[in-house]
């Protein structure tokens, strides 16, 4: 009778403690994103986090059954702080590459490639070079640590004091914030990726009355050291980012394998056409090997 009682108790405990979901749950991966760069990462009308970076990440991890993902919306600087501290295991927020950041983080293969534009206060003439912004004493608007801000810092480092550009650093991002600062005279110009510029123009009726645009190429950046021009113009891709740890590398390698598969089988292109309404695929040579 005692043996029977013990067996029943054991079965009862097993029934209450065994959870088939948790027993087979994968390694948790918390993905940080800013959620404020439509159409790459944003919260839609139904309060769902979506966008190209987000949906591509979801598709990747549908193939990686050993991981369970969760997204968290955070500020841009907190994204990298969280990656370094272990709060986040991956960043997905239209993240560009720079050499300094690559010393501390792993980058995936590129997930997107799109040109950049100078966006500036409309005046009597079109501005065709970075040198003109400096000559006109125009104030640049940008987040610390992003590629465009680093480009401006590189410009200032290579110029005499009278040819440097004043940089107005911000702690948030978004077209409306830029437009407000432009209207009140705080700043004069910034850099937009092509798709963000398109969305910015479509979502603000008065934009075309206030701003003008110039595609950024080698000629526009003349005056910068050539290696810095190549670093910006030649690297107009975005990536997923991971902590530079053993676990981060393992996760990056797993994600890279799926990204390459998606690039070859058309999944990446289909997502871009569905979400971005255009093809922004990275060049084949940029997909051949891992970024760092």
Automatic annotation (TrEMBL):
Solute-binding protein family 3/N-terminal domain residues: 28-279
Stretches of the chain forming a coiled coil according to its record: none
Pfam family, one: SBP_bac_3
Presence of the UniProt keyword Signal in the record: yes
Domain of life assignment: Bacteria
Stored Gene3D superfamilies: Periplasmic binding protein-like II
Signal peptide residues on this chain, from the entry's feature table: 1-25
UniProtKB keywords: Signal
Protein name: Solute-binding protein family 3/N-terminal domain-containing protein
The organism of origin for this protein: Facklamia hominis CCUG 36813
């Amino acid at each position: 009778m005692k043996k029977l009682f013990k067996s029943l108790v054991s079965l009862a405990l097993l029934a209450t403690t065994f959870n088939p979901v948790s027993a087979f749950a994968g390694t948790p991966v918390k993905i940080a994103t800013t959620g404020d760069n439509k159409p790459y990462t944003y919260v839609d009308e139904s309060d769902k986090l979506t966008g190209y970076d987000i949906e591509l990440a979801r598709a990747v991890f549908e193939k990686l059954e050993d991981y369970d993902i969760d997204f968290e919306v955070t500020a841009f600087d907190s994204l990298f702080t969280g990656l370094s501290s272990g709060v986040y295991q991956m960043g997905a927020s239209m993240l560009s590459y720079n050499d300094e950041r690559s010393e501390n983080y792993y980058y995936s293969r590129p997930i997107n490639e799109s040109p950049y534009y100078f966006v500036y206060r409309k005046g009597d003439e079109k501005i065709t070079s970075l040198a003109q912004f400096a000559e006109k004493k125009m104030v640049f608007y940008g987040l610390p640590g992003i590629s465009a801000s680093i480009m401006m810092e590189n410009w200032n480092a290579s110029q005499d004091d009278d040819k440097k550009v004043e940089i107005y650093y911000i702690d948030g991002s978004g077209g409306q914030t830029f437009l407000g600062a432009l209207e009140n005279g705080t700043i004069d110009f910034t850099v937009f990726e092509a798709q963000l510029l398109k969305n910015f123009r479509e979502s603000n009726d008065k934009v075309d009355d206030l701003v003008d645009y110039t595609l950024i190429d080698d000629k526009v950046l003349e005056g910068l050291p050539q290696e810095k021009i190549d670093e910006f113009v030649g690297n107009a891709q975005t990536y997923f980012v991971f902590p530079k740890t053993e676990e981060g590398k393992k996760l990056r390698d797993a994600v890279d394998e799926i990204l390459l598969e998606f690039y070859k089988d058309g999944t990446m292109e289909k997502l871009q056409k569905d979400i971005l309404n255009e093809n922004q695929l990275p060049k084949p040579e940029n997909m051949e090997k891992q970024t760092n």
